[in-house]
Automatic annotation (TrEMBL):
Source species of the chain: Gossypium harknessii
One Gene Ontology cellular component: chloroplast
Signal peptide extent: none
UniProt name for this protein: AB hydrolase-1 domain-containing protein
InterPro entries: AB_hydrolase_fold (IPR029058)
Length: 184
């Protein structure tokens, strides 16, 4: 949800955004035939209905190809927001709004309004959001740089050196373009 939220913010505040980086971003295209897979439904049900440390740990272990970074600190940092007394209400409102407006809140509806360069840092081994989605985003939004990384759902944590280098290189490129436009 973080990447999709960043996309919505970039579209809503284009004057404040010079580039957008997404890492294995969630969100659906507006394909009427597309259905949520059984594994996604199972994940959501378990994540919402049973916010227990064991469930979080099991879910994180599913998406990390290199599980050496899955420790108590990581699990607690993911679990902590769910422990907030208002978490259920926030999640309910978020999901209700999304479910009632599925055709409005789609990747293509927001990508079609995006005006800045887009970087996709993509863990190709992600069992939930595979490389096909990154390729589809790039096809839909040509102003995209795609960096494929040998990682799961969290490339920034699994291969931080590679993810950081790709991000810094991309930021340097868009900073140069932005400064050259200002001097014209």
């Amino acid at each position: 949800l973080g990447g999709f939220t960043a996309l919505v913010a970039a579209v809503g505040l284009p004057e404040q955004v010079v580039g957008l980086a997404l890492l294995n971003s969630a969100g659906q295209f507006g394909d009427a035939k597309a259905k949520t897979t059984e594994s996604e439904e199972t994940f959501l049900q378990k994540f919402v209905l049973k916010p227990l440390k064991e469930v979080f740990q099991r879910v994180v272990l599913q998406v990390y190809i290199n599980t050496s970074n899955v420790d108590d600190y990581l699990v607690e940092s993911i679990k902590m927001p769910a422990d907030d007394p208002n978490a259920g209400e926030v999640y309910y409102r978020l999901m209700t709004r999304f479910m009632l407006n599925q055709t409005e809140y789609t990747l293509d509806s927001f990508l079609s309004k995006l005006t800045c360069p887009l970087l996709l840092l993509w863990g190709d081994l992600d069992p939930w959001v595979g490389p096909a989605k990154a390729n589809r985003i790039k096809e839909f939004y040509p102003n995209t740089t795609l960096v494929n990384l040998k990682a799961g759902h969290c490339p920034h944590d699994e291969v931080p050196e590679l993810a950081n280098k790709a991000l810094v290189d991309w930021l340097s490129t868009i900073a140069k373009k932005a400064s050259s436009l200002q001097t014209v």
